[in-house]
Specification:
792 residues; alpha+beta; 5-stranded antiparallel sheet; 23 helices; 29% helix; 19% strand; UBP13_Znf-UBP_var; hydrolase; Papain-like_cys_pep_sf; cysteine-type deubiquitinase activity; zinc ion binding
Length: 792
């Protein structure tokens, strides 16, 4: 009878093609796997997998009745399985920390819905089409695993066959650390250093998104000098340098790159030794203070299980994602949108045919995985629950979420470590896009706020610039350290020990302590802006810039600018503590808007130049020397009012994915007014000049412009609380600290991220799949601080 039923549904069975994505390791709606209770059901038409509680939903939606049922039982792990010592600062990869993945026995059957009629597999009685389809599914690499392997192999470059025999010409060329230009044209970006003769030349046309003039490849065609390295990609991590082989026409590895660079005066020997020593210390968690303190190593951690206390298994350098998402799903906005107010069934019903590529479905799946408590269970070792105090869980693997959120970002698609700030901004951008049709339901709004910059030129007239942002990026004023006396004594001790050839112990290290309040003050502190074109004076001059917030978001994310670029090539992490308060009040940071008696700078000065800043060429050239696109560097300088290299770089990293990032810089007045709105106000009987002024002062809002005309003073007060965007949330300026994302390591591209979240009256540590009570949260060491507004 079952066999007849199967034969009657053969039209719904497909034999997978090599190009088909086959899911057989994880349910696309939940985190059920073949080893979960009830196993996994693979749809033999779409090759999507479903857990036992969800396969019925797929049958209802698609009518596909035939499934391959896979069940796994765990094999015991030998007690004498050796633990390999890690050689890389990574988890779950070859050379990294061993995850000790278990092995499984698998059993299979064919199941036909809706009555779950079951036929054994393998069986010669089954129709040939079914046997061929099942064989193809079982032999194929699962889509989940395939994506992971592709991510790793994409990062692996081959050693160039020309590297070991490369001849270098001793022509006296010495390469400076910045200020480069193509030897044959004026290009200052996308420059390549030929490793044979030291010539600096521009790249190919349309290469790397920024056009060159082909001078580097033409030089190879003339000389046949094979290898070049892209300037701006060279750091102490020489493996990360972009080396290109012209005869091999591919990016390659040069194992002698340090020697080849030293030939032209770029000497890495001492720097490399320092970096290796640092990496060794980071690997040795017993001696490295940062790792122990942030991960709360060396002390018993009380394990936590249940709703909201689910760990995330490391997929291989995915801790930046895990730490960020643990804090994100501790906010009411994301918890409500993707857990309380949206069921898995609803998300699946409205998802496209392939729910694995739908961000709404995968965010809902991740939310239910983290918040339901269903997967918050102790890790099992050799069929025994791990009763140690490690707080380790089985955890859930956010593979499908990572694949869909990374689809629009090439860096997050790799298995390399990434910047948690950059990931947070990318996530918020993607969430905002998918909720564009229903902004009221958009949880990204809870992080969004307005920033207003006021520029005053010597004429006394002012210009106001407004923009929206999701993080408040703060400089750390080291000169405001509160422990200067202890620092002086430490530097004396350090000098003395160095003179004696002794090392400083971790107990003796003293770091600057800077209050968070001083970091916040540095954001709004008046600063000079050089090269500002004043349309009142019709000349370049120095303006005074101040900044404030036009709205206070539900959640305020503070980004501490701990990573700075030192003179030369080396990115440096500031060794500093930030003294933070659990409750802060930023009410004083609210911008005042246009004030009574203030006069805006004229719209234009009768010249081609506008009130818009011209980019500071020093800032642009320094950013371009790091390998950034020249146009992007100009935009970064302009959008940060030429405040400095660090500010511009932070802006650049946060806006790399802007849809208009490659659009030319328009020559237009900043305070452009919509002519149709001017005409509307003129039709009301107002003078045209007054209408223009009112629209500028009210951000283009006709209703507010009318109020401004009748009562400029009251309108100015209203502008104080008005935002750049009417959809921005706003309220009091009092906030409570609810989350930390901390980083260990010398740069955001390596090391490890850990989250601490304040939940149910206590601090909780989320360290990948380790979840427990935090006894000493590292509040003074975080990279990102998450504050929640206190509702009055």
């Amino acid at each position: 009878m079952e066999l007849e039923l199967l034969r009657s549904n053969l039209s719904k069975v497909r034999i997978p093609e090599p190009t088909n994505r086959i899911y057989k390791q994880e349910c696309c709606i939940s985190f059920h796997t073949p080893s979960s209770e009830g196993g996994l059901f693979v749809d033999m038409n779409t090759f999507l997998a479903f857990g036992k509680d969800y396969v019925g939903w797929n049958f209802e939606k698609t009518g596909n009745p035939v499934y391959l049922h896979i069940e796994q039982t765990k094999k015991p792990i030998p007690e004498d399985r050796p633990l390999k010592k890690p050689t890389l600062l990574a988890i779950g990869i070859d050379g990294g920390f061993d995850n000790q993945e278990p092995e499984y026995d698998e059993t299979y059957s064919i199941v036909i819905l809706p009555d779950y009629a079951t036929l054994p597999f393998p069986s010669v009685a089954l129709p040939e089409k079914v046997r061929l389809a099942v064989d193809a599914i079982l032999i194929a690499e699962g889509a989940e695993r395939k994506e992971q392997i592709a991510s790793w192999t994409a990062d692996k470059k081959q050693v160039s066959q020309h590297a070991l025999t490369l001849k270098q010409i001793d022509n006296g060329v010495r390469i400076p650390p910045s200020g480069w230009k193509c030897a044959k044209c004026d290009k200052t970006e996308n420059l390549w250093l030929n490793l044979t003769d030291g010539m600096i030349l521009c790249g190919r046309k349309l290469w790397d998104g920024s056009g060159g003039n082909n001078h580097a490849v033409e030089h190879y065609n003339e000389t046949h000098y094979p290898l070049a390295v892209k300037l701006g990609t060279i750091t102490s991590d020489l493996e990360g340098a972009d080396v290109f082989s012209y005869p091999e026409d591919d990016s390659v590895t040069d194992p002698l790159l340090a020697e080849h660079l030293a030939f032209f005066g770029i000497d890495f020997s001492s720097l490399q030794k320092t970096e290796m020593t640092t990496a060794e210390k980071e690997l040795d968690q017993n001696t490295n203070f940062d790792w122990n303190r942030i991960q709360e190593s060396g002390q018993e951690v009380e394990p936590l299980f249940g709703p909201g206390y689910t760990g995330l298994t490391n997929l291989g350098n995915s801790c930046y994602l895990a730490a960020t998402m643990q804090v994100i799903f501790s906010t009411n906005s994301f918890c409500s949108r993707y857990y309380k107010n949206q069921s898995l069934k609803t998300a699946f019903d409205i998802a496209p045919a392939d729910p694995t590529v739908d961000l709404n479905m995968q965010l809902t799946k991740l939310a239910h995985g983290l918040l339901s408590g269903q997967y918050s269970i102790p890790a099992v070792h050799n069929d025994d629950v791990d009763s140690s105090s490690s707080a380790k869980q089985e955890g859930i693997r956010p593979r499908m979420f990572k694949a869909v959120i990374a689809a629009s970002h090439p860096e997050f698609s790799t298995m390399r470590q990434q910047d948690a700030l950059e990931f947070f901004l990318h996530l918020i951008d993607q969430v905002e896009r998918v909720n564009a049709s229903n902004p009221e339901a958009d949880p990204a709004r809870s992080f969004k706020f307005g920033i207003e910059e006021r520029l005053q030129c010597p004429s006394g007239k002012v210009a106001y610039n407004k923009r929206n942002d999701y993080t408040l990026s703060l400089n750390i004023p080291l000169e405001k350290a509160t422990n200067k006396k202890e620092l002086e004594e430490f530097h004396k001790l350090k000098a003395q020990k160095e003179a004696e050839g002794k090392d400083i112990s971790s107990d003796e290290i003293v770091r600057p302590r800077v209050p968070l309040s001083d970091c916040l003050d540095s954001f709004s502190h008046p600063e000079e802006v050089q090269g500002f074109y004043s349309t009142a004076l019709k000349a370049r001059t120095t303006a005074i810039k101040t900044a404030g917030l036009t709205s206070f978001p539900d959640y305020l994310v503070l980004h501490m600018r701990k990573f700075v670029m030192e003179t030369g090539w080396v990115p440096k992490k500031l060794d500093v503590y930030i003294d933070v308060d659990d409750v802060i009040d930023i009410s004083h940071m609210r911008s005042k808007g246009l004030q009574p008696g203030e006069e805006l700078l004229p719209e234009d000065g009768g010249e081609e130049e506008s009130t818009k800043l011209l980019p500071n060429e020093d800032i642009v050239s320094q950013l371009a020397s790091m390998g950034f696109n020249h146009l992007h560097c100009q935009k970064a300088a302009i959008n940060t009012s030429n405040a400095g290299v660090e500010e511009a770089m932070n802006w650049l990293l946060s806006h790399m994915d802007d849809p208009d990032i490659d659009a030319p810089i328009r020559k237009e007045a900043k305070n452009e007014v919509d002519p149709s709105k001017v005409a509307t106000l003129v039709s009301f009987g107002f003078d045209e000049e007054i209408a223009r002024k009112a629209l500028k002062a009210s951000g283009g809002d006709i209703e507010k412009a009318t109020d401004w005309i009748f009562n400029p003073s009251a309108a100015a007060d209203a502008a104080t609380s008005s935002s750049v965007d009417a959809t921005l949330s706003d309220g009091d300026g009092k906030y409570r600290l609810i989350g930390l994302v901390s980083h260990m390591g010398t740069s955001t591209q390596c090391g490890h991220y850990v989250a601490h979240v304040y939940k149910e009256g206590r601090w909780v540590i989320f360290n990948d799949n380790k979840v427990g009570v935090s006894k000493n949260p590292p509040k003074d060491m975080a990279y990102l601080y998450f504050y929640e507004r206190i509702q009055s």
